[in-house]
Amino acid sequence: MEDGQRFTMAKLPLFQALTEHPLFAKVPQSVLVVLGVITAAFLVIFKFFYILVITGVLYFVAAILSAGDAQFFDCYQKYIKKHDYYST
């Protein structure tokens, strides 16, 4: 090892896989599934092709929000369920 550098477990891929929130295509899997189902429903049922643009924009917004905090959507879901408790 070079002088001044220490070995840390945080750099190992196994440690990162066990401690970091899993993201698929930079968004949580649940958000990606919801966007996919909405897109498929609008395409198949209504033949509304503009939904591809709308869900594309929503995907990029979700990617930006989860880039700052990977657990943003999990925290937001819990906050919505307990909104009355947290509001004053």
UniProtKB/TrEMBL annotation:
<dbReference type="InterPro" id="IPR007792">
    <property type="entry name" value="T4SS_VirB3/TrbD/AvhB"/>
</dbReference>
<keyword id="KW-0812">Transmembrane</keyword>
<dbReference type="Pfam" id="PF05101">
    <property type="entry name" value="VirB3"/>
</dbReference>
<keyword id="KW-0472">Membrane</keyword>
<dbReference type="GO" id="GO:0016020">
    <property type="term" value="C:membrane"/>
</dbReference>
<protein>
    <submittedName>
        <fullName>Uncharacterized protein</fullName>
    </submittedName>
</protein>
<feature type="transmembrane region" description="Helical">
    <location>
        <begin position="57"/>
        <end position="76"/>
    </location>
</feature>
<keyword id="KW-1133">Transmembrane helix</keyword>
<feature type="transmembrane region" description="Helical">
    <location>
        <begin position="31"/>
        <end position="51"/>
    </location>
</feature>
